Amino acid sequence: MNSKYLKSAVCALLLMGGAMLASAQDDSTSLKKRLTIGGYGEAVYSYNFYSDNVFRYSHSERYTESKGHGRVDLPHAVVMLGYDFGHGWSIGTEIEFEHGGTEVAVEKETEETGEFEQEVERGGEVALEQFWVQKSFSKHLNLRMGHIVVPVGMTNNNHTPDHFFTVYRPEGENTIMPCTWHETGISLWGRAGSWRYEVQLLPGLNSNLFDESGWIHNGSASPYEFRPANSLAGAARVDFTGVKNLRLSLSGYVGNSFNNDITRTVYKEDSRYYGATGTVMIGAFDFAYQDHFVTVRGNADYGYLSDAGLISTRNKNQTTMTGNPYPHTAVGKNAWDASVEAGVNLLAWRQYRTGNRRLYLFGRYDRYDSFVPAEGFADSEWTERQVVAAGVNYYPLPQIAVKAEAGMRVLKSQYNREPYVAVGITWCGFFK
């Protein structure tokens, strides 16, 4: 072959190879820009200096001198994945492993003539917390469809561990509302100047799962492979950030919960429930202020449940056959909580030497009641609680925190106080 043509061919191949390499690099760069990978997690040790016996409130005098109990826990371990397809289309997912997830194994039992048995090796939960497709028309208008977080209250909207000082999530909201609250629905959201808004259409809660210790906390769950949606509900949130370092937020929820299950009450069989709706209404306010020196956060939530007396009667009279997944307790017509926490960054004055390191000394106060009874039902006075806590958060890096906390849960005078200590390590971040 003519050397001239050989040289031309080699040059052409090199150019093609370079173009393919450049294209691959461009695709790789594009993928990195479009793909978002992140998550958060918590590992905790706690010791409670009080009895965990189920009768510690009904017979509190028996447990005055009880020994405490220690626990290790993985409250949350979450993997987040997102991808931007372009042209305004994107997806987001969040898979959560609570308390270490679940483990089930099949074992051959020597003691039982060699039978194979399936045993639970570890209790926990695995949940798909977010799974949505979004179309962004502009910064003012975005449509999100799929499994989404319900942004009612402070904790649901800010549930990663870098948004609260305590080792576990704030107790009040985590008791009376689903947390993290996630539903399959539709969301419209957007930003305009210093304002951000969001409105959602969701399936209603299930009043069969309400109880006195957690009000509607379990109402978004489902023991089935699907979520009953005989009733629909709405949620909304507005955030204002027009003042430097300060966020002010209002959020709310309204929806019917009675008969939102696979087994529905037939009014001909019992006309007492005719017209009952079990309307759940929640109003919430929360705020956060943060600068280099001080962080202050707080919230107040108030909830109302219509027909609470009828729902309590029905729940207490539900069948007790084996496998029934529902509680058999009354539920309050109201529930409420309020909290405030404040932390001082002890390293702020040496920021030029400590870089991104932060050391917060914090204090926190919660007060809440998960059961304000309907007329005709006795008050379970142990459901009203105050929690006082203090501790430290150390951030060697912005994404990693070591937390330590000591606190006291204070109930009414006839009940024993519940002191505790807890330490944990958390991380929260995104990887490009």
Structure, explained:
The protein is mainly beta. It is 13% helix and 48% strand. The chain has five helices and 19 strands. Strands 1-3-4-7-8-9-10-11-12-13-14-15-16-17-18-19 form a 16-stranded antiparallel β-barrel.
Strand order, biggest sheet?
1-3-4-7-8-9-10-11-12-13-14-15-16-17-18-19
Average pLDDT score: 88
Roughly how many Å apart are the termini?
49 Å
| Count of distinct strands | 19
The helix content is 10-25%
Shape descriptor: globular
Given as residue ranges, the uncertain stretches (5+ residues, pLDDT < 50) are 108-112
In short:
The chain is mainly β and 432 residues long.
Task: Provide key terms for this protein.
mainly beta; two-stranded antiparallel sheet; 13% helix
Strand-helix topology:
Elements: H1 3-34, E1 35-48, E2 69-73, E3 77-86, E4 89-98, E5 103-109, E6 115-122, E7 125-138, E8 141-149, H2 154-157, H3 171-176, E9 182-192, E10 195-203, E11 232-240, E12 246-256, E13 279-290, E14 294-305, H4 308-316, E15 334-345, H5 351-354, E16 358-372, E17 384-397, E18 400-410, E19 418-431
Antiparallel strand pairs: 1-2, 1-3, 1-19, 3-4, 4-7, 5-6, 7-8, 8-9, 9-10, 10-11, 11-12, 12-13, 13-14, 14-15, 15-16, 16-17, 17-18, 18-19
